[in-house]
Design goal:
Layout lengths: L1 H7 L12 H16 L11 E9 L5 E4 L2 E2 L6 E2 L6 E11 L5 E2 L2 E2 L10 E5 L20 H4 L2 H9 L4 E5 L3 H7 L1 H5 L2 E3 L8 E5 L1 H8 L4 H11 L5 E12 L2 E13 L4 E11 L4 E3 L2 E3 L2 H23 L6 E8 L7 H8 L8 E7 L15 E5 L6 H15 L2 E3 L17 H6 L4 E5 L18 H20 L12
This protein binds zinc ion (ZN).
Length: about 475
């Protein structure tokens, strides 16, 4: 693992950004490792599953309020999401904070479908900085994980979401890289909700007689949702350029024996963030660590097979691209599975296993497991037993809690399998100071720790592949 990671996480591989030269070099390197392990190309043809991506170049939408044009990246900002769309309306719905909770529900009796909706970022804050939602100083997911708010609005059919933020200039600085990077999509969609982040000043212009500050105060005073129907002409034009780029998942397929129609999938993403000027994001932990673990597991099962101990079920060792762009390689695979998803027993996904997080500073003998009990109690038991018998790691289930604000269950490639009803386990060491920084370097990797975790994946896979009964899907937890 050390040898391979010193290659893949070196500057020569330019941070392995999806669609770029470094990613292609990494793909070729991984395919070579499968070949060296004696794994034939799948379907006697190739190690690659190729896919094409739409690259949307960043360009602020044009926005007019009462025919007055506002300035992108000053009065408002938006991420590249859609490519061609014009929307005009004479009515905007102010939906308070856009929160749906027992006891505080902005959506109750409100029809937001197909509307242009304005809402405030964050949540109502009472005196002494107490949140109305949590009743404590701690903030709820509605503040700390903005995606929850966006998803709720999207599900409810909002057409354009005007999110009022506290400080546009600060957001522009904090999110500079993301705002200036093109978006990548498997498919273009000019119909879903479009989000614009607007300044309080711009919100005040839209609200006319009301002011954002007054509304915030009123909500805090009454502790009740507050909504307004505003008559204002609002127009937005989106026109972003699109380019095409090709990428690939790299697959090593070890065919099983008497149960070969059934498949275990082992995944890790080999793409990372690329370069920014002279800075190379080598992503040794994220997810060079998982990538080299998958290579090692592939070699081990191939060796077992050569020596007459091959798995009964087939195993697909798949390193995917496009993860950092929105789990795209795995999304493509589950849409275009090479082996039927009905026959896919589970996906074991390894994403960051080479480092320690703050909670375990002096204890390398742990791993966070996420998702193992969500769809199949059998999978959870097998995983626990494999650890008890062979590896004795401290299995930390903190992030398996659906209320955990980090929402890691939704944030790596296994989730695309889980969405399709395929049981998953996500192996993860947690984030650390070098996460998504240029300092995520191979010198900082703890290979001993990685070895133990990789053995846990190995023993779990061995049991899943060789037991007579396929594990059952017997629950559906979030
Ligand atoms: Zn990752």
């Amino acid at each position: 693992m050390s040898k391979n990671l010193h290659v893949l996480a070196s500057d020569e591989y330019e941070g392995r950004e999806t669609g770029k030269k470094g990613q292609k070099m990494a793909a070729a390197y991984i395919a070579d490792q499968f070949k060296l392990a004696g794994i034939p190309p799948y379907m006697e043809n190739t190690y690659y599953q190729e896919f094409s991506l739409n690259v949307i170049l960043p360009e602020p939408a044009e926005v007019f309020v009462e025919r007055k044009q506002y300035t992108g990246n000053k009065d408002y900002y938006n991420y590249p999401e859609q490519t061609e769309r014009s929307i005009e309306t004479d009515s905007i719905l102010f939906l308070g904070y856009g929160i749906q909770e027992d006891g505080y529900n902005d959506y109750k009796n409100m029809d937001v479908n197909d509307k242009v909706v304005m809402m405030l970022a964050g949540e109502p804050i009472l005196k002494d900085s107490i949140s109305l939602i949590t009743g404590k100083k701690a903030r709820s997911l509605w503040s700390t994980y903005a995606k929850v708010k966006l998803e709720k609005a999207r599900e409810s059919g909002v057409k354009v979401l005007l999110m009022v933020v506290d400080d546009v200039a600060k957001d522009l600085l904090d999110n500079k890289h993301r705002l200036e990077s093109p978006a990548m999509k498997l498919e273009l969609n000019n119909e879903g909700m479009f989000i614009i982040y607007i300044s309080r000043q711009m919100a005040n212009d839209i609200l006319k007689k009301e002011k954002v500050e007054t509304l915030i105060q009123k909500i805090a005073d009454t502790k009740k949702p507050l909504h307004l129907a505003v008559k204002t002409n609002f127009e937005i034009n989106i026109k972003n350029k699109v380019q095409k780029v090709g990428s690939e998942n790299v697959l090593g397929y070890v065919e099983g024996s008497d149960l070969k129609e059934e498949l275990i999938v082992i995944t890790a993403h080999y793409d990372h963030l690329g370069v920014d000027g002279k800075i190379v994001y080598n992503g040794a932990d994220d997810d060079g660590s998982g990538t080299v673990a998958v290579i090692e597991l592939a070699k081990t099962f191939a060796k077992a097979k050569n020596e007459g101990h091959g798995p009964r079920r087939s195993i697909l060792f798949m390193t995917v691209a496009g993860e950092e762009k929105g789990l795209l390689g795995s999304a493509y695979y589950v849409k275009n599975p090479i082996y039927p998803l009905e026959n896919t027993v589970c996906d074991l996904n390894i994403d960051m296993i080479g480092r320690l997080d703050i909670k375990h500073e002096n204890n390398s003998n742990y791993i966070y497991l996420i998702g193992s009990d969500k769809l199949s109690s059998g999978l959870h038991t097998i995983s626990e037993n494999a650890n008890k018998m062979y590896t004795n790691l401290e299995l930390d289930y903190t992030f398996n809690d659906e209320k955990d604000k980090n929402r890691f269950y939704y944030r790596s490639d296994h989730y695309n399998f889980a969405k399709k009803g395929v049981p998953v386990i996500f192996y993860f060491n947690g984030v650390h100071a070098d996460y998504h920084k240029e300092t995520d370097e191979v010198e900082k990797i703890d290979f001993k720790k990685m070895e133990t975790i990789t053995r846990l994946v190995f023993f779990t896979t061995w049991e899943l592949a060789n037991r007579t009964e396929r594990i059952k899907v017997d629950s559906n937890k979030k």
